[in-house]
Amino acid sequence: MLKIENLNKKFRNNIIFDNVNLEFKKGDLVHLYGINGSGKSTLFKMIAGIIDPDKGKIEIENNKRVGAVIENPGFIENETILYNLKYLFSLLNTYDEKVEKSLEKLCEEFNLNLYNKEKIKNYSVGMRQKVSIIQAIMEDQDIILLDEPTRGLDQDAVKQFFNIMKNYAKKKDKIIIIASHDLMDKLAYNRQLIIRDFKIYEKNN
């Protein structure tokens, strides 16, 4: 469902990836580890189509949708959570009452109120992170990329995040890749990858 072939990327003279080859299949729940600056966010941006590789290619099966939390999430700052989620959802999908009920439930699971009139710009770091996670999964996306997803979350929100990811992983029809330093023992990953020396290795190698 997701294949990376001969991937190369550098910024100016700094090499990020050198001839990386990976393949992911439905049901993969992957932990991606790398030190700060190793390229985790860059990899996610290339998979999501935000930036292009210098060489090589990333192939995603037709009609498979990507949801992502990458670095600092962007929002329409002067609008509400409802406006932001509705706007993003409506770009590619039909927004209706059933969808709104689903969003309402997702927000409740993170102790957020979909109908809060507060503007996103006034949300705390943790609240913004919750909204970004909701954005990444609200369309039932096929490939989910989460870069340090628990950053800024309180204990209850972290617990709920784990529960949601466990439920998504049970479906066995998605690829979930989580880049984080502190989720190693919280989820039943079937693959663990490490970024080292401009390559990406299976951790047991």
Describe this structure in words.
By secondary structure, the chain is an alpha/beta fold. The chain has one domain: Rossmann fold (3-Layer(aba) Sandwich). It is built from five helices and nine strands, in the order βββαββαααβαβββ. The strands form two sheets. A six-stranded mixed β-sheet has the order 5-6-7-3-8-9, sandwiched between helices. Strands 2-1-4 form a three-stranded antiparallel β-sheet, with helices on one face. A hairpin with a 2-residue loop joins β1 and β2. The two termini are 23 Å apart. The model has no long low-confidence stretch (mean pLDDT 94).
Keywords:
9 strands; six-stranded mixed sheet; 5 helices; three-stranded antiparallel sheet; about 25% strand; about 200 residues; alpha/beta; Rossmann fold
**Distance, first to last CA:** 23 Å
- In the CATH hierarchy, the architecture is 3-Layer(aba) Sandwich
Major β-sheet annotation: 6 strands, mixed
User: Given the structure, what is the number of helices?
Assistant: 5
Amount of helix:
25-40%
Q: Provide mean pLDDT, rounded.
A: 94
User: Based on helices, strands and strand pairing, what is the structural class?
Assistant: alpha/beta
Number of strands: 9
Q: Strand order across the biggest sheet?
A: 5-6-7-3-8-9
Tell me the fraction of residues in β-strands, as a range: 25-35%
Count of the separate structural domains:
1
Write the layout of secondary structure elements.
Blueprint: E1 2-11, E2 14-24, E3 29-33, H1 40-47, E4 55-60, E5 66-69, H2 81-90, H3 97-109, H4 125-137, E6 143-147, H5 155-170, E7 175-179, E8 191-196, E9 199-202
Parallel strand pairs: 3-7, 3-8, 5-6, 6-7
Antiparallel strand pairs: 1-2, 1-4, 8-9
